[in-house]
Amino acid sequence: MPLIRAAAAAAAAVLTVAAAGCGSDAEDDADLGGAWTASLGVTAAWAEAAPRATGTAEVSSGDGTSVQLSVTGLEPGLEYTAHVHDGECDEDPPGGGHWLADASGEDAAGNIVQLTFTTSESGTGATTASVPLVLDDRAESVVVHAPEPATEAAGLDSDRVLCGDLEEN
């Protein structure tokens, strides 16, 4: 009988260790949300066309995501778009692709974090966007995309004018 009890205790111990290694929703939730800052700098492609372009992004994510974006040195009076991206700024292209809430889902509204703003006559712009999506550890950067007329006027193939890697606060 003691041998059976020892075997049962050993089996219980193995099951406990195996179950502990399986992970849980609480463990997965640890990778969700947070607060970040990004200092946006002009991309290499836009260095000559927008040499003074710069910006900042303050990002917080918990029940949803809020992004506060402020930029300077862009073409005046144009509508720009910005997104949270899944790559770092030193990648090619800078920032990689759009961060998708559902990584296997469509790159479209409801699955991305997108901001739109129009620059002032001095080339500055600011906006805040809040979305019901929660960022995870795939969010790496914020990229500002120039509108097509500005990209064409500069003779460039890339619309990625500013990029900043997210740094955890």
Task: Describe this entry's structure for a reader.
- This protein has three helices and nine strands.
- The protein is of the alpha+beta class and about 170 residues long.
- It has one domain: Sandwich (Immunoglobulin-like), CATH 2.60.40.200.
- Strands 1, 2, 3, 4, 5, 6, 7, 8 and 9 form a nine-stranded antiparallel β-sheet that branches.
- The radius of gyration is 22 Å and the shape is globular.
The CATH architecture would be: Sandwich
Query: How would the global form be characterised?
Result: globular
CATH superfamily grouping: Superoxide dismutase, copper/zinc binding domain
Q: What is the helical fraction, as a range of percent?
A: 10-25%
Instruction: Give the N-to-C terminal Cα separation.
Output: 58 Å
CATH class: Mainly Beta
Count of domains: 1
Number of DSSP strands? Answer: 9
Helix-strand string = HHEEEEEEEHEE
**Mean of all residue-level pLDDT scores:** 87
Give me the Rg, rounded. Answer: 22 Å
Q: Runs with pLDDT <50, length 5+?
A: 3-27
The CATH topology name reads: Immunoglobulin-like
Name the beta content range: 25-35%
What structural class do the secondary elements suggest?
alpha+beta
How many separate helices? 3
In this structure, how is the largest beta sheet organized? 9 strands, antiparallel
Question: Could you give the topology of this structure?
Answer:
Layout: H1 2-20, H2 25-29, E1 34-42, E2 54-61, E3 65-72, E4 79-85, E5 114-118, E6 125-131, E7 141-145, H3 148-154, E8 160-165, E9 167-168
Antiparallel strand pairs: 1-2, 1-8, 1-9, 2-3, 3-6, 4-5, 4-7, 7-8
